[in-house]
Amino acid sequence: MPFRETLDYLYGLQRFGIKLGLTNTQHLLARLDHPERCCPVIHVAGTNGKGSVCAGLARVLGEAGLRVGLYTSPHLHCFTERIRINERCIDEAEVVRLTGELRACAGDLPLTFFEFTTAMALQYFRSRQVDCMVLETGMGGRLDATNVVLPRVSVITPVSEDHAEHLGADLAAIAGEKAGIIKPRIPLVLGRQQPEALGVLKQRARELDAPVREAGVDFHPVHHPECFDFVGRNVQLEGLRPTLAGAHQRDNLAVVLAVAEQLREQGWDLPDHALRRGVESLTWPGRLERWPSNPPVLLDGAHNAAGAAALAAYLSGQGLANLPWVVGLSGTRRPEQIFLPWLPLMGMAYVAEPGVDKAVPAEAAAAYLRSQGRAVRVCTSPTAALAQALHDCPDAPLVVAAGSLYLIAEVRAWLRAHNEVPR
Question: Of 33, 81, 151, 248, which has the fewest beta carbons less than 10 angstroms from its beta carbon?
C-alpha cells in the first residue's frame, strides 16, 4: 500500500472519534507481545508545555548517548513527525509496513486513530531497539491510550482548562484526569500548577505513595535577561542559553532538567554537559518561532487560554504593541477566551479559518474583535491572511501568527515554500 493510501486509512480511523479508554489499546498490545515493556519510559501529561518537555527530554537523553524514541502529537506538516528516534522521523516505508502489520493484528478491534498510532510508535521503537521512550499523552491521562505503560518517571506539565467536553468543566476535574498517569511509588515531576490543580495532583500522589518533585519547591529556574540558571535538589547549572524563547519555555526546560535529575538518582548516566547541550540546542517548531521574513513573523500555536496568556506575556516583555496579527481558531475554542490577553498588543487583525472540519467561523472571531474596537480583515485562508499582513505592514517590527496549530502549520508551510528559513 503506498504511503498516501496508508495515511488515508489512518485518518479514516478518526470516524471512531475520541474514545477515552484503555481496553482496545491493551488488547492490541497483548497481541503484539507488549512492545510497551521493551525499555524504560518517561510518560508526560499536562495541558501546556508537554510537547516542549517531551522534545527537551528526548534531546537531553540523546546528548547523553542514548537511543531515544519520541512520540508526540499533533504534527505540523507530516504524520511522520509524530514518531521519531533521536530527531529522525519514522520513514514513510515503515509507516506503510507497520500499518499493514497492525491491521492484521487488530482484526475487528474498533481502534481510533490515536490508539492505532500509539501502538505503531511502540512497535516501531521496539523493532529499532531504542534505549528508552518519551511518550506524550494525547488529551487526558487516566484513559489516554498511552497510559498502558509503567514509566520510570511520570511528568505533569501545567494543567489549565482545555477540552472541557472530554475532561471536565473545571480545573479540579481536568487535573483529576491528568493525575491518572501517576503510578504507585513511581516518581512524579510536577510543573508549575494553579492551586486548584496542584491540590488534586499532590493528593493523588500521596494516595499512591509516589514521590513528588514540585516546581517552585524542589527545583526552579533563576531568570536573567539573556540566560537562566537551574537550581534543583542536587543539580545546579548556570548560564543556560536556550534557543526556545519565553519565560514559560524556561519553566518547561526546568521540568526537563528535574526529570533528568530524578533519572540520575535512578542510576542513569546523564552528565552535566549533556543536560546543557540538550537544553541549549532544543528547537520546537511553531512555538514562539521567529522567521526572518520582511517583516519578520512570529509563529505560536497558542490555542488555549493559558497559551494565549504566555504569548501575551512574551510580547509585552519585548515591549511590542500595535502589531498586525494573523489569527484563527479550531475546535470548540471561544474567541473571547483566546483573544482577550492579545487585545492590548493588537493592531490590525487578519482573521481566517484553519483548513479543518471543526474550525471556528472567521466571522465569529472577527465579530468579537470588532466588538472590542479592533480593525479586522477577514481572509479566505491563513496563507492569504499572512500574505495580506506582510503586504499591508512592511514596516511592522513583527507580524504575529497565532491560534490553532492547524493555522500555524498552514502559514509555516507557506513561509517554507517562499524560501524563508527559520531563525
Answer: 33
Omega cis (within 30) before 35? no
CA–CA separation, 190 and 259 (whole Å): 9
The arrangement of strands across the sheet holding 88-89 comes to 88-89, 83-85, 68-71, 132-136, 41-45, 153-156, 188-190, 212-214
Other C-beta atoms within 10 Å of 66: how many? 20
Q: What is Dmax (Cα atoms) for the chain?
A: 60
Helix (H) or strand (E) holding 30: helix 23-31
Segment 288-297 mean pLDDT: 94
**SS3 for 132?**
strand
Give yes or no for residue 419 having a pLDDT over 80: no
Q: Is 362 exposed, middle or buried (0-12, 13-18, 19+ CB in 10 A)?
A: buried
- Using CA atoms, how far residue 144 sits from 65, 117, 140, 149, 192, in Å, is 30, 12, 6, 11, 22
Q: What are the pLDDT digits (tens) for 74-91? A: 999 999 999 999 999 999
| Spatial distance between the Cα atoms of 146 and 63, rounded to a whole number of angstroms | 25
Query: What does the block give as the cell for 165?
Result: 467536553
Report the pLDDT averaged over residues 52-74.
98
Number of Cβ atoms within 10 Å of the Cβ of 132: 23
Per the listing, cell 514521590 goes with 211
**What radius of gyration, in Å, describes the C-alpha atoms of the chain?**
21
Q: How many CB atoms lie within 10 A of CB 291?
A: 20
Write phi, then psi, for 41 (nearest 5 degrees): -130, 140
Helix (H, G, I), strand (E, B) or coil at 175: helix
E strand intervals along 273-409: 289-291, 297-300, 323-328, 346-351, 376-378, 399-403
331 touches 356 (CB < 8 A): no
137 backbone dihedrals φ, ψ, rounded to 5°: -65, 160
- How far is Cα 281 from Cα 151, in angstroms, rounded to an integer? 26
- Cα distances (Å, whole numbers) of residue 6 to 10, 92, 94, 393: 6, 9, 11, 42
